[in-house]
Amino acid sequence: MPFLTFGIAMGNGRLQWKLSDANAERVIKACDEFNNANGRYPRKLDELVPKYLPSVPPAKYCLLEKFWYFNSDGHCSLMWSRYGFYRRFYNFDEKRWGNID
After folding, report:
1. Which terminus of the chain, N or C, has fewer Cβ atoms within 10 Å?
2. pLDDT at res. 9
3. Are 42 and 52 in contact (CB under 8 A)?
4. Total structural domains in the chain?
5. According to the model, what pLDDT value does residue 10 have?
6. Omega into 57 within 30° of 0, i.e. cis?
7. 27-49 pLDDT, tens per residue?
8. Rounded to whole angstroms, how far apart are CA atoms 84 and 101?
């Protein structure tokens, strides 16, 4: 039984990671479209709704998992927690992915 429980937990974790990466891609694409149309990135993700996204998707499908979006003087990044202290981020200036752990 412990192996089954472990397998279910790991499978759910991988599914959540894939969903969070897919949702992040949607948010990044919407931010880039917003930038192309307005000459700047949104100040908050709520500016993307409803023209670029029907709603801001959750980072993962569990309690209180949202994307953290930072826009400081036009330098933007998007971050979310994969698990614990391991966080994934996207830097809009450099158009690159990274991890913080």
Report:
1. N
2. 57
3. no
4. 1
5. 59
6. no
7. 999 999 999 999 999 999 999 99
8. 9
